[in-house]
Amino acid sequence: MSRKNQMPEPGNDHLVEQGFTLIELMMTLVISSFVIIALYATYTSQQRVYAVQDQVAAMQQNIRAGLDILTRELRLAGYHGTSSTLSPSCNIGAAGAPVAPGVLSVAANQLDFSRDLNSDGDCSDPGENLTYALYVAADGVTKLGRRDNNNAVPAYQAVADSFDAIEFRYLDKNGLVTTTPADVSLVQVSILARATRPDDRFRNTATYTAASGNVLWVANDNFRRRFFMTTVQCRNMGL
């Protein structure tokens, strides 16, 4: 008799064909689907966390870079080296003020100051009469700008991108608020940076308060923000 026609004898289980039933296959597919869904959810969650961290890091790097440039230049406000006589060019934007380099105004939304970097008795060289403020660039983004008032056509140059608000607060050598430019010894800078893109899964309803106690910005949108405040000592002023 041919072997392929043999019927399995009782007790010979090794001759019985084994495999998965349809129900077992269905259960395997269902379990596999749940595993894949869980892995995908974990992946997308990690991607979102990375994107948020990337946005926050970019904001912090941007604002720190801008403030670093501003503070380094502001510390030299009022510097005139060994020059004993100064020309009125040190008073651009400060009509009627005594001829001396320094902080030229006490405006809350912009910072005007001068310095005689090469000690030649005037403040008319490049970089010696500056204004810092927020401005809206051609691309529609509000940026921290630096304007050299000694240029033939003074215009803001971007120092850092994407801001909502800024406030300058002026203090004398005793730490008291002053409205007299010549008495300024310290400048407090409050600045609010904004992410370049909104996040539909995030809602910002925070209120940001400047060093003066004034409300700088009330948010009600999907943008992440970072608020920074720093105090800069003008080493050559208020002595």
Secondary-structure element pattern, one letter each: HEEEEEEEEE
Distance between the termini: 119 Å
- Oligomeric status: single chain
Helix content: 10-25%
The low-confidence parts are 93-98
Strand order of the largest sheet: 1-2-3-4
Strand proportion: 15-25%
The gross shape turns out to be: elongated
Mean pLDDT over the full residue set: 85
Let me know the largest β-sheet.
4 strands, antiparallel
Protein described:
The structure is a single chain. The chain has one domain (47-233). Helix content is 22%, strand content 25%. It has one helix at 22-74; strands at 110-114, 129-136, 142-148, 156-160, 163-171, 186-194, 207-209, 215-218, 225-233. It has a four-stranded antiparallel β-sheet. β3 (142-148) and β4 (156-160) form a beta hairpin. The termini are far apart.
Question: Summed up, what is this model?
Answer:
With 239 residues, the chain is α+β, with helices and mostly antiparallel strands.
Question: Strands, helices and their partners?
Answer:
Elements: H1 22-74, E1 110-114, E2 129-136, E3 142-148, E4 156-160, E5 163-171, E6 186-194, E7 207-209, E8 215-218, E9 225-233
Antiparallel strand pairs: 1-2, 2-3, 3-4, 5-6, 6-9, 7-8
Summary keywords:
239 residues; alpha+beta; 1 helix
